[in-house]
Design goal:
By secondary structure, the chain is α+β, with helices and mostly antiparallel strands. The protein has helices at residues 2-50, 184-189, 236-239, 246-251, 295-304, 310-326; strands spanning 52-55, 58-62, 68-73, 76-79, 87-90, 92-98, 101-108, 113-117, 126-131, 134-140, 148-161, 167-182, 195-210, 221-235, 255-265, 268-278, 284-293, 334-341, 344-347, 350-354. It has a 20-stranded antiparallel β-sheet that branches.
Length: 359
C-alpha cells in the first residue's frame, strides 16, 4: 500500500506542478491581453486629442501558448491636423511578441492598403493603393529615443489615382528592406540630447514605375539599390513620430552621409560614397566619390537622351579612364566625382542635369 501511495505521489505531484505552471502562465497571458487592450485604448484617446484618429472594428488575442498575437480588424488612421489631411486603412494588422521577450514586437501589415491625401492646391483628395505579398515591420525597444526598426516588403504594387479616379502613376518592387536605429555609441554618451545621428541601411530590388510625370533617361526600372548611410542631426521628435518634417530637418543642418552605395539603374552601374544636403534655396547639394562601369552603355544613354553630345562624352570618359587606371581602378570602370552644386548636377566635367528645389 505504501508502494502504491508512493507511486501515485510520484505521478501526481509533477502533474499538479505542471498544471499549476500552465494555470499561472494562462493568467499571465490573459493579463497581457488586458494590458494590451488598455494601453491601446489609452493611446487611442491620447492621440485623438492631438488630431490623430485611430479606429478598428475589432480587437482579438490569439496563439496561446506559444506567442502573444494582437489582431486589429479593419484598422484606420486619419490625421486631421496635417496639411494634407491624410488617412490610411487596411484589412488587418497583427502584432506579435514572445511572452518571454516583450521588448521585440513584429507587425504583419501585408495589406491591402489605401491612403488618401489632398496635395497642396488640389481641389479634392488623391488616393494610393498598395498590395503586397508580405509586409513586415520589426521594432526592438532599446535605450534612447527609439530602438531598432526593420521593414521588409515583398511583391509590392501601388496605384496612384487623381480625384476623378484615373490612374496617374504606378510602381512596383520585388523587395524593399530598411533597417535603422540611432547610433548606439552616441546615445550612450549623450542620453539627454535633442538630436542624434541615425544609422540607416536600405535595399531595393527591381523597382519599377510607369505613367510618371517625370521622364528619366536611365529608364523606368532600378535593378538594385543598396545603401549604408547615416542621417546626421536627426531631432528626437522625428524619431518618436511627434513631428516629422524632412524639410525642417534638412533646412536646420541635416544631411545624408553615405558610406556605401550600389546603384544598378539601366545603363548606370555605380558604386559611391559621400554626403548630400540642401542649399539655401532648397536644392540638393554635395559630392559623391563614384566608380562607374558599363561605360559604353552609359555614353549611349546620355547621347540618346540629348544630355551631352557623343564627342564630349567620349573625350571626358577616355581621359577619366586613363586617370583611373593609374589610380588602380578595376579595368572597365572609371573613378569620377559626382557634384551637386548651385542647382547643377555634374558627372565629372559633364553638366548633365538641372536640380530644382525639393521644397
Amino acid at each position: 500500500m505504501k508502494f502504491l501511495k508512493s507511486s501515485h505521489l510520484k505521478i501526481a505531484l509533477p502533474t499538479l506542478l505542471l498544471a499549476l505552471a500552465i494555470l499561472l502562465y494562462w493568467i499571465f497571458w490573459q493579463g497581457l491581453a488586458t494590458q494590451a487592450e488598455t494601453a491601446l485604448t489609452k493611446w487611442q484617446n491620447k492621440e485623438a486629442e492631438r488630431g490623430l484618429i485611430a479606429q478598428w472594428e475589432e480587437i482579438s488575442f490569439s496563439d496561446f501558448p506559444y506567442r502573444f498575437v494582437t489582431t486589429l480588424t479593419k484598422p484606420e488612421l486619419a490625421d486631421i491636423r496635417s496639411k494634407t489631411n491624410w488617412a490610411w486603412r487596411s484589412e488587418a494588422l497583427r502584432a506579435t511578441v514572445q511572452p518571454y521577450n516583450l521588448k521585440h514586437i513584429i507587425l504583419d501589415i501585408t495589406g491591402p492598403h489605401r491612403v488618401t491625401y489632398t496635395p497642396k492646391g488640389a481641389p479634392a483628395p488623391h488616393a494610393l493603393t498598395l498590395t503586397t505579398e508580405g509586409f513586415w515591420a520589426s521594432h526592438v525597444y532599446e535605450s534612447g529615443p527609439m530602438g531598432r526598426l526593420a521593414i521588409d516588403v515583398t511583391g509590392a504594387h501601388s496605384d496612384h489615382f487623381d480625384p476623378q479616379g484615373q490612374v496617374i502613376e504606378q510602381w512596383s518592387a520585388e523587395r524593399l528592406q530598411l533597417h535603422g536605429h540611432p547610433a548606439p555609441s552616441v546615445v550612450a554618451e549623450n542620453p539627454n540630447a535633442t538630436a542624434y545621428p541615425f544609422d540607416m541601411a536600405v535595399q531595393g530590388k527591381n523597382l519599377r514605375w510607369t505613367q510618371s510625370k517625370v521622364d528619366l533617361w536611365p529608364g523606368d526600372e532600378i535593378q538594385l539599390l543598396r545603401m549604408q548611410s547615416r542621417l546626421r542631426n536627426v531631432p528626437v521628435h522625428m524619431m518618436t513620430g511627434r513631428k516629422i518634417s524632412i524639410e525642417q530637418w534638412l533646412r536646420e543642418g541635416g544631411s545624408l552621409a553615405i558610406s556605401d552605395l550600389i546603384l544598378n539603374w539601366g545603363p548606370i552601374d555605380m558604386k559611391a560614397k559621400g554626403e548630400l544636403a540642401i542649399d539655401g534655396q532648397g536644392r540638393p547639394t554635395g559630392k559623391l566619390k563614384a566608380s562607374l562601369g558599363n561605360l559604353d552603355a552609359l555614353v549611349e544613354a546620355l547621347v540618346a537622351a540629348d544630355v551631352v553630345d557623343r564627342k564630349t562624352a567620349n573625350l571626358a570618359f577616355t581621359g577619366l579612364q586613363a586617370l583611373s587606371a593609374l589610380q588602380g581602378e578595376t579595368e572597365g570602370r572609371v573613378r569620377i566625382p559626382i557634384v551637386l552644386k548651385e542647382g547643377v548636377l555634374f558627372l565629372g566635367p559633364l553638366s548633365i542635369a538641372r536640380l530644382e528645389p525639393l521644397f
